[in-house]
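Entry 14. Structure prediction run on the chain below.
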Amino acid sequence: MINYSIIQKSQLEGAYRLDAEYYQPEYLTVDKLLLDRSERLSDIAEIRGGKRLPLGETFSKEGVPYIRVVDMQDFYVDLTNAEKIALDLHERLNRYQIKKEEIAVVIVGNTIGLIGFMLSDVTPCNLTENCAKIITKNVSPYYLAVYLASKYGQDQIRRLTVGTAQPKFGIDKLEQLKIFLPNSKFQDIIGRYNKDAYMFFSNAYDLYSQAEDLLLQELRLKDFKAEEDLSCIVNLSDIKSVHRIDAEYFQPKYERIIEKIKKYDLKSLGELVSMKKGFEPGSDEYQDNGKLFLRVSSISKNGLIDKDQKYISDELYSKLKNNFEPKKGEILLTKDATPGVAYVLKESIEGIIASGIMRLKIKEDIDAEYIALCINSIICQMQIERDAGGSIISHWKPEQIKKLQIPILPKSTQQKIADLVSKSHEARKKAKELLEEAKQKVEKMILGE
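Output returned:
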């Protein structure tokens, strides 16, 4: 079925766009729905860009959070793994700080339109140049954030995005967005959904942190510091055995953590699971719809990321699904680009995984959530950092993955840890459901339903 639109010449000239995609029927429908029922974003909010770190400046171990795109995957800004910059640099960049109840929007890259609502009770944080921030005027930021994440916000952003090799969405385009403004009572209703969702997300973060803390406490690693030594002495035989000559590989910090966990029952990952690598059909096979094709960028320790997803045809899926479709209960583990991200699949999906992902199937009496948490923790992340280092693009080889050392704690402790992780995922799921319900309410209100 072919979609097409008939456009008046005057409309083309008015929009300064000749590309057919700009006039897709779905975009024209949104335009018509919002006509005379909306305000320009620039009239109801102040919009400012973020800031790249000045030349020569780097992140520091202590200081003020620096919010990047990766820190806003779940609608809210997540400071858990945010990098930090020194206080004096933060103060110099005071114009580019984001505060509580302000909204971040990605404006560069493959996740343009991603929303990060700032609700953490912290002092202002600095914002990357890949984002802009929105400061509302007499409009509920809780409502506006949901509206921008809804179909009507996202469709407008997609329509206005410049289609280049590296997509960009200028602040001037952001200012043009049409914002449907219902009465304050409805804004408050959506706001309550937003606040409740944030409460569940916060609970999810707390539960996952408790699981990590319990693991590290049991292994007496709670206060472990991965500090680097200025020098170390290495035997030639050690260099030959690992086929590595880079100094980073032989940092004593890696040996220190292995020595710490040696006193516990250790098993290699290869003993605990069977492994299967995914498949790369090539970008020519990617489609805008069809069956899901999970790439490394689709995987996080908290779940699957549904932004910038790729799809393959039903026909190709049918050929590949027997060997490359992941099943409920399997661990998805990234091995390329960002190696060492593990997630236990909560439900079966119709799709296949890319070659940068491994499927792990448990073959011993051990909880998959426990193994995934170990992999995502400092215990395994340092082993992975050591293995996958030494190149511009990180690659973690299957033979290295099999050798990953997993400490096996008593079954009762494993269960406590796994239960906390499971509760964390349930809270996250509830938060997403509330946000989805809020978006649907906004969409129905615009349609007059």
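The chain has a mean pLDDT of 88.
Filed with the rest of this week's runs.
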